[in-house]
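Hi team, as promised in this morning's meeting, here are the two structures we talked about. I've kept the exact order from the run log so nobody has to guess. The first one is mostly here for context; it's the second one we should focus on when we meet again. Sequence first, then the predicted structure tokens.
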Amino acid sequence: MTTVRARLVLPLNQPPIEDGAVTIHNGRIASVGSWDSYHASASNTVIDLGSRILMPGLVNTHCHLDYSNMAGKIPPPSDFPAWIKSILVLKSHWDYSDYAQSWLTGAAQALHTGTTTLADIEAVPELLPHVWESTSLRLISLLEMTGVRSGQNPEATLSQALSFLNNLPRSSHRSLGLSPHAPYSTSAQLLRLTGLAAQEFNLPLAIHAAESYEEFEMFMAGRGPLFDWLKSQRDMTACGLGSPIRYLHQQGLLSPRLLAIHVNYLAPEDLQLLVTNRVNVIHCPRSHRYFDHAPFPFQSMRDAGINICLATDSLASIHKNQGQLPELNLFEELRAFTTTNPQIAPEEILNMVTLNAAQALGRQGELGELRPNAHADLIAVPYNGNLSNCFDYLVNTIPTPDFIMIQGQTCVCPAS
């Protein structure tokens, strides 16, 4: 048994607790309450963090770890197809060791800035499971599939991905899923087959959807720079017949297991499709700013009851900050979001990287909150302010955690 004490404990499923304590047993939370209610025993170790906020570890629902060392290498493009072409050129010069080192860099950044669970799109499956051994992060690795440019048979693409997944070890720390890349880069048949496989094998799904105006224009109107680039590479008969979200619905991909990444451009019917199918939407504020997209339709999605999460995306599509390379830091995303949405309460913003994110991954009650039987994934940040200001502090100041625990094991601890 271990008990972690702090000046403020934020369970997130209940009000903050002043002078609180979280007791941990076998990697799970046993109790959450005030220090006064804590009952000491000879077998219990106490970690007293003093003037800190103790809270759940952050949950990043969308990232590309193996692109982390691409930070700062692609200037903001003239349009979305130009960015795709730039990253394809950059990737053509990388080998296994480049991707491996990039993955390790990103994992270290994410962990040390407070992320304890991360859903990662894996474009280089050969990295698994070797890179897993380098990090304490709780990982959901989602195998990326395309096939449009390669012309590979959809059945073969999915069969290879499922075979690869079946040969990887699973644990409470490591789980797996599928990620058809985007509506424009995957065939209708691959989308349909992937949706059926995810349902049969209870796998999480992720897809980049309605990310750019060029993608939206391609599907809605059958024209534009993305349409012109891809028309010689894929079947375009679905273009001009409806939105990317409608296209995904027609292929049976919309469901509560789906992480719909970006969703920046909506047709009038799309909101109801997302609501009816209980799709989770993943917004990446810094990436959104990099591409200068139209304002994210947060208010309409929120009012409709859609589960919205915040995530980092990859570092290949985030601006430098005053000449400094960006890091995979969810606290940075919180501040970027509140800058454009100052009317949203800080508590609600924090929920988008904790409670909402756990729901999106189907891990309610296990991640993103402090409650009995949840995983003991905790972080703490130094704080000397008032209780009433603690949420504002977390979403506006980019705090640096100096205590991190995953599954009851301490990864980072304050210097004595």
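And here is the second protein, the one for discussion:
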Amino acid sequence: MTPVPIRLRDALQPWLGASGWRVALSGGLDSTVLLHLLARLAQREALPPLSAIHIHHGLQAAADAWPAHCRELCAALSVPLQVEYVQVAPGASLERAAREARYAAFAARLGVGEVLLTAQHRDDQAETLLFRLLRGAGVQGLSAMPVSRALGAGQLVRPLLNCSRDELLAYAREHTLAWVEDPSNADERFSRNYLRRQVMPALLSRWPQASTNMARSAAHLGEAAQLLDELAQQDMAAAQVSAEFAWLPLPSLALPTLRDLSEPRQRNALRYWLRPLTAMPDSEHWAGWQALRDAAPDAAPVWQLAAGELRRSDERLWWLAGDWLRKPAPFSVVVQGNQPLALPANGHVRIDGQLPAGNWQLSYRQGGDQLLLPGRGHRDLKRLFNELRVPAFVRDRLPLLRLDNQVVAIANLPGVQGAADGRWQLHWQPPTNDQGLS
């Protein structure tokens, strides 16, 4: 078999032009071997600047000694080290919370074009496949860990996925490397530890090539996931036609295009679209999509997901998150000048131009509000919104301009957002989907 150093060098060829290589160094066996391999390679070949990052979670007393160990190791290899201390948010899964804190710290410290190198290996890949299979993951989840993915301003790369743990252990012993042992790795209350210590040894005793074969299956599933993504991109291209309300900064899709697809293709397209927006729903939760899709035309259905909700309006799907999930507080202010006004949980409103003298106020709609339209008389706002096909979730958020308590303008709606001669107009910058940002 090809030696580990050669396989590592071949795996890193696509990233030789990176602005820097940063090793995620825990101090354990795997990351210690990776750092040693790279430091030796850097002595023979021209590589991007090499450094290491150690994340200290503070979850156990033994971990307090690990930063010193990592400093000693990096000093011996002449590799700069950055030690970062993070707080792990409490939650149902300590493993997940620690992982999220760790990768958030990595992402925050990666510069543009830099690569974070992590030491997951073939056995980790097999464990990940088995773990996700037991959780009922789909094709995307069963493709396990990709070789690379975006992270912060750079990339995360796993160059040891074609190496086994036994090979890394043999390398460490050959070069008399020292590493730390995490006591929590022996705690079989954690699912991954149970798989690693109880299940995988039993499988390997019967099928010695189990890890290799499972990693290969993960690679096949990765190719299948890529093909499904390409199909979803084609389906999305037809559904992502521009919305009528270009001023709404929300992801949206044309529903008729999706409805014409088969059920599996609908789910595949929506998974692809929702993936960067929210955690994927489980199989049973997809009934919410069917209810949303098949609701009566005059209904206002909502499909609630982990990080937001999907709404339907006028045969279009809209993704809402952040401030859009918070009901804006009622407000009524006297207009003074034309400075932008921040609206709690609802963006900003401003008046472009100069208003004539009068008792001008800004507020949201109220029951019985009407607007005087030239040649048409007074029109009830509800009927006017229906005529203009304004999405239902927007209507109570649209700022209104009143003169002597009578509505004279509605922000952003053509024909009714200001003076007929264009001397002044009411503009609204809606909130974004970002958490707490507008």
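Starting points for discussion:
The CA atoms of residues 381 and 387 lie 10 Å apart.
Residues 332-429 form one domain.
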